[in-house]
Design a protein that fits this description.
The structure is a homodimer.
Chain A (H helix, E strand, L loop, with lengths): L21 H31 L7 H18 L3 H7 L4 H18 L3 H6 L1 H28 L8 H11 L4 H10 L4 H31 L6 H32 L8 H21 L4 H16 L5 H32 L7 H29 L8 H9 L5 H13 L4 H30 L11 H9 L14 H12 L2 H45 L4
Chain lengths: ~550, ~550
């Protein structure tokens, strides 16, 4: 496994240790991991206590962030710093390859298909057009700020990179806070869907800008950006759906759902999502979009082919992994921010960036909602308070953080460091302030269910024991929703939906998949050829 | 997380890639992981097919090894080698920190306490005295071979390092083959217990020899080696038991076994073993001994405090993780061996080494069995066929492989490479030949149960559904054993055993734990001081 080292830190990465006895290094790594595990345990216990006492202004995510901040701050004060820094070195790769996949898969796996697909048009509008608008607006405002000496001046393309990475509203953060409360199902689907899909858009935009910068070829125009995004998005979706369907076929016909093969069944079941993620990444597509759709498909079509024991197990397994990964991400972010020797000369940059992203998010949400409302019938308009809630829920989290880490690489002349500092500050502020006030805001806007019915994840577990209605597991975000769901089942509209909507969609997807498989094979060959050519040239380009 | 790069390869590690676009590196890592996942899926499916057709001469472990060998060989032939090599770079750290803990924990967790503790004296004799004898005999024979020009000549201390690392009979390999069959419970306990504990001895011996070599101070004598081992062993055991008891107390009094908290409960439960492993590693003790005892204690005292759902879940969870880790280890070993450009000039060394380890293992097993039989009453003698089976079962596996990888580091003058080549060859030969013939051997020696009653792991799963008798989960290694177990329950001798033996042991352990906690705190402080001193000196020593 490749692990990029993080260069360009002001603190300076610890110098590569001398050829010391390996057991000492292993011991050091052991102490680091020990500290991480202790913080995880502490975060879980604290989260439990907070939830039990219904302290809504400090959600679990914020609590984890704070634990990280405090421990990082303590480590910063003590003189063992470089040592601890080494243990905790966060790699974008580690995040993208090991922490993100379980979180996103679980999102898809526990997704209620109905609200998601019935809002699909709106979600895609917010995710694609909206994120694009937000990135450009943020980038241009930051650039103008630089021109007028209000902020640190960055070149336009770097401003756009910053705009792209800071436009990724984070599914991790948003989900963990929204799940604590019970929100309106449509609002939940909008916020959730947008935050998952706009990550893909943000990554695509960021990479495009990054390649524009490194090539210095301004020939890449808007059209190519959009085309690139669409290619990535639909390619990833097809590969995800394809892997999901493959797993459904395997489990249907391999006959593993008999007694005594639970372990084999579970092993194969948990390998598929990761396979999907890695397939997409290997093809240069977006792993998170792919694994999201694999989650949706596997829940709907593979899950029911499992034996009952394996159903219980896999639901709990993915829940466990995503909880661990989520908590770890927050702790780590807090730790890194507490640890870092930030140059506070960028306070102005941070302050004005926050204003810019607020404006940009307003431009995103209200313009896209206007467009969506133009198309939708009167009874399905997005109400103004939902728009406000959507605007307010634009927390920045792990994805922005990970991309900012990458920007430290991509912009080694100190600009990346400025972007990184600003991003971490924005992440902490939005998670602590917005996260802490989300429940108040949701109640003020009257978009919350009853909120006291217990968090979503708890109602999950209860449902898990009732396999008969297993596919509604993810929809139960509050009491109101649960009621809706019941009437929904009683008039069998889901079955109708499935027959009229999902099954044709499935057939369509199978065809799309076959087409894209050919396309992908071509793409692999092209990539291979390209790598060989580049190696043959050995040029610096 | 620190990851050591592997130096001193004849093939040459791939040169550090130029500051290429990170998405390309990520993509490459993605393809590598994709390949690994595909091989895992293939190994599981193949293992299932082999088991269904009862092909005993190709156990699952060997099948995984062969898959790795074939793919590695193919990659070796193709010219994309350095690329693939980079993706697959196996780090000792990765093995010791992430693959080994779940395997060993599960061993402890699924251990039948009775046969293990009733054979404890014999196991400790084989593990401590026997491994010591085997290491010394192997080392001296290899040294003599070098002196008489039969083999490549290595200095005595390096011969002893080789002797130590090759004396680690592997729990991974041994367990996965023994579990396929149903063996006599006492023999199983002996082979299993010895192979788990002798790893600790082999690591301690290897590290001691390594530090003797690096310090060139021959002041470290036999007494210190033994003292060091005993300190490591009892320290690790106490810390493991301590963490296990801590978890038992937490789950007893935290009141998490109510409805709706399954996820929190499971999260905490799965963090404890890792905590124990890392605590021991961080203290410079043996993580595997620690996690083994944590497994035993958690199964006996923590498990029953969990809610029923979490009991099902955690048993299946650890089974899943250990299956994945085991299969991955075998695939990886095969891959690495197939991939490596071995210098076959060492064929003589390999051949004579195998003879040496055969002789050394005989010296270990038969002398220790003689000693044990001197003490045991007539009805509890270790019969000769058990001794033969024990001698035959000395497969070398992942632990020897990992230590050999480390020796490439420790002995950069090419000697490490020789040791590594010899070790990999020995691992492949013992796994394929001994592994393939183990069932024949066990049947010939008439120590097998009925063998057709289904593998141990399958009877596990069946038992898992029956929580009432959950602690006998690990004991059911075959039909004979199952019968024994039933009568065992009916006359309630286990309860008696528990009251008369385990509970006092527990009280004793609590005291030992409190003492060792103090000792450990001191040790942490000492280590910290030492590190600071060393840093202050900045000397090469």
């Amino acid at each position: 496994m490749l692990e990029l080292s993080r260069t360009g830190q002001p603190v300076g990465a610890p110098p590569p240790p001398p050829p010391a006895p390996p057991e000492k290094e292993e011991q050091a790594a052991g102490v680091g991991i020990l500290l991480q595990i202790s913080m995880l345990v502490l975060a879980f216990v604290l989260g439990h206590v907070l939830r039990r006492h219904k302290i809504s202004y400090l959600p679990e995510a914020s609590a984890s962030l704070l634990i990280g901040l405090i421990v990082g701050g303590l480590a910063n004060i003590s003189n063992t710093e470089t040592n601890i820094r080494g243990w905790f070195n966060f790699h974008e790769e580690f995040f993208f390859l090991f922490l993100l996949p379980p979180i996103i898969f679980r999102s898809g796996f526990s997704l209620a298909p109905k609200p998601f697909f019935s809002n699909f048009g709106a979600i895609v509008t917010f995710a694609i057009l909206g994120t694009f608008v937000a990135s450009i607006v943020t980038g241009v405002l930051v650039y103008l700020g630089g021109l007028t000496y209000l902020m640190y001046r960055l070149p336009l393309v770097e401003c756009l990179m910053f705009g792209a990475l800071i436009s990724a509203t984070d599914p991790v953060t948003v989900l963990s806070i929204f799940q604590e409360l019970g929100t309106d199902e449509n609002l939940y689907a909008l916020v959730f869907g947008e935050s998952v899909l706009n990550d893909a858009m943000a990554i695509a935009l960021y990479r495009t800008m990054s390649s524009v910068k490194s090539n210095d070829s301004s020939g890449q125009n808007l059209f190519f950006v959009v085309l690139n995004f669409l290619e990535t998005f639909f390619g990833s979706m097809s590969s995800g759906v394809g892997v999901g369907l493959l797993s459904a076929l395997l489990f249907k016909y391999a006959g593993l759902n008999v007694e005594n093969l639970h372990n084999l069944e579970s092993c194969l079941f948990v390998l598929f999502p990761y396979f999907s993620y890695m397939l997409a990444e290997g093809l240069g597509l977006s792993g998170i979009v792919s694994i999201l759709f694999t989650g949706i498909v596997m829940k709907r079509y593979t899950f029911s082919n499992l034996s009952e024991n394996s159903q219980h197990f896999s639901a709990a397994f993915f829940h466990l992994l995503s909880s661990l990964a989520e908590t770890f991400v927050f702790i780590y972010m807090g730790f890194d921010i507490g640890m870092e020797q930030h140059s506070w000369s960028h306070v102005g940059f941070i302050f004005f960036s926050i204003l810019c992203i607020g404006v940009a998010r307003a431009a995103n949400v209200f313009s896209c909602a206007y467009l969506v409302n133009l198309v939708r019938p009167a009874n399905r308009q997005i109400p103004l308070q939902h728009q406000k809630a959507l605007w307010y829920s634009g927390l920045r989290g792990a994805m922005a953080f990970a991309l900012a880490l990458q920007s430290v690489h991509d912009l080694p002349d100190g600009h990346g460091q400025t972007i990184f500092t600003a991003t971490t500050a924005i992440v902490v502020l939005t998670v602590l302030l917005i996260g802490g006030s989300t429940s108040t805001m949701l109640r003020a806007l009257k978009v919350v269910g009853d909120g006291h019915n217990g968090p979503l994840e708890e109602s999950f577990e209860g449902k898990n024991c009732n396999i008969g209605s297993s596919y509604d597991e993810g929809t139960s975000s509050g009491g109101k929703l649960k009621m809706k769901l019941k009437e929904f089942h009683s008039n069998a509209s889901f079955t109708t939906l499935d027959r009229h909507y999902l099954t044709p969609f499935l057939h369509l997807m199978t065809m799309v998949m076959m087409m894209t498989t050919t396309m992908m094979m071509e793409r692999i060959l092209m990539t291979q050829l390209k790598i060989r050519e580049e190696r043959a040239l050995q040029g610096p380009n």
